[in-house]
# Entry
Amino acid sequence: MANPFVHVELNSTDVAKAKAFYSKLFDWKLEDVPMDGGDNYTMISVGDGTGGGMMKHPVSGAPSSWLAYVLVDDISAATQKAKTLGGKVMKDVTEVMDMGSLSIIVDPTGATLGLWQPKKK
# Structure
């Protein structure tokens, strides 16, 4: 399948409360990974299916929300294509540690979606 969903991320106003809730609700393995800036990123391993992560919401005052990411071959081209098709770029192409790059777009209907390109080895 071309361009599958590959990661689902919770941007939370209270990560500790979210971790306590989801670790009891589901059989997820949660692992904290240090990020630049001193905060942790919590990786979510689900076994079968698409995993994800949790982090402190990067937008002050915004409500907690889940964001799905779609795999792309060329993050810069896909981000630009979304823009030319009437989408808005909420977060331009950004390298994530040594893992790959992401961007966040908003489609013409107002829905937010993440794009992800893993680092080529």
Remarks:
- The chain has a mean pLDDT of 94.
- The first helix runs from residue 15 to 25.
- Residues 1-68 form a domain with the 2,3-Dihydroxybiphenyl 1,2-Dioxygenase; domain 1 fold (CATH 3.10.180.10).
- The two ends are 22 Å apart (CA to CA).
